[in-house]
Amino acid sequence: MTDALWYLGRGTGVMALVLLTISVALGVAARSGEPLGPLPRFAVTAVHRNSGLIASVLLVGHVVTLLLDPYAQLKLIDVLVPFLGTAEPFWLGLGTLGLDLLLAVVVTSLLRMRVGVRGWRAVHWVSYAAWPVSLLHTLGMGTDAATPWLLALSVLCFVAVAAAAVYRLTLRAEVSR
Amino acid sequence: MTTLHIDWTACHGRGLCAELLPELLATDPWGYPIARTGGDVDVPAELHADAVTATKFCPRLALRLRAR
Amino acid sequence: MTTMDTRVQPRLLDAAAADLGEHHRGHGPIPWQGGVGRMIGELQSAGLTGRGGAGFPTWRKVAEVATAARAVVVANGAETEPGSRKDDTLLRRCPHLVLDGVQLLVEATGADEAYLYVKPGDAMASVRHALTERHGWDRVAVRVVAAPNRFVAGEESAVLAAIAGRPARPADKWLPVVHSGLRGRATLVQNVETCAHVAQIARNGARWFRGLGTRDEPGTMLVTVHGAVREVPIGIALSELVTGPVLVGGYHGAWLSSPAPHLSRAALAPFGAAPGAGVLHPLAPGRCGLVETAAITRYLAGESAGQCGPCRNGLPATAALLSALADRTAPPDAVHRLDHLTGLVVGRGACRHPDGTARLIRSTLTVFGDEVRLHLAGRCSR
What contacts A44, CB < 8 A, 6 or more positions away? Predict the structure, then answer.
């Protein structure tokens, strides 16, 4: 049982990162204002939103399982307040920080019609902090950090977001020319 | 019966609404939605759900539905 | 520069008064009506419509606003229409008549805030001076707000934006201004000439008001021709005011090939025209209508607030094409393309700036159709 929690906690964490990466990459690319190849814009937006939502659900699973797991030694306060943990306070704190930031992004997005475009956009900017923080947390905290598969996955995530950023910046440069 | 209201000061012409409501909206040469009717757009009952989706997907929150 | 129409006794321009004392001697105190809503019936009987250009029945707006608990009254004297001088003339010559009207609208709506929106200059100085005289005379203090000299700054929602301290740009009309205007409060925005008529109706009654004008469009209106302001009964023959082709209703108006019709909404409607704010631009002898309209359209395109995509993109494209037509460098399908472009902008903005511009273009293509064909053939009749 304890092992199951431990594996579940790690698995949900990794998958949350993957889905968060998809969401951020699509968000960055879609904001260029250009359609992504043959994909309809609303479809890109739908995948952006849903992957972000699923990432949040997985993140809840990640946190809850590790709270229940005695091996992880996670206290309730570590879930919301960063950098207080006993083991690996820095790397754990990054995870907490990422969770807090993502929480703000998701809540304002779900209430977007009420918050209004300005407020929503202002908060949405912190996605650019939440994603790298999550990636670093995975690499620093992750038990599997040293394994080639997780390293490869992290590189892949980084490349995906970097590619999206380059795509958007080149398009913007073309438009402004 | 509902009507779809476009806030032209908010619209940036991203075009998601025209993809989601092709029966009611096309795009003009600059990418802005153009109603097949003009003014606020009458939304027939069978397209109400699609119109709700369009308001939710507008990146600029420039669309609103008004009950009549 | 101001002349009175020779046939009728002017009702507004005649009420000129150098100060409150003279105004009081001529007109007496403010004819208070005795409570909220009490004047609505009289305004309805009088058939007064807004003199700012849209021509909406005044009583209906007053009735809407009067139902709200805390209302705002705004007298709009921005007069951002080039060539119009009537609001400026009125505010300089009879500021007290306008301000009496504002107070009567305050009473009629139960408003507890009032503003007068006017460009800096002699008219604003005149209003400010008049207000200093009116202590103990007014129910609600009128605050003067400066209007920027931009074409769309006189539009109702732009006026409210300016009063609220924001840039004077038109806003989306999800809720009508009469229900949700300044800071979300029910707001009555009336042109300053309309306010002056309100004061005269309160003093002399609806029957008197209906003594001039047509049955459906009673009363007088101020018109500006070549910078000169006259007060004329609605329905006057345009030929009494101008000769030759004339642009009726200002830059958002329509060209008439000759001043045959009369100056009323009903008489001008078949021509796609309307009196608007009473600005008449006759085509100067020897001038080409296309060249003139191209210049106006370039001005209008430049005056777009740039908020709404169809206007921001469509007006410059329209102006460029019409300019090419005026310069005799337009492609053969220019008329078709202008039809298409004007069709693209109508009804697609926060305000009526694109609609008004489209109306101007369409009337130009109709009235100067022969000239268009000449220009497409590389010639010009002028």
Answer: A26, A29, A30, A35, A36
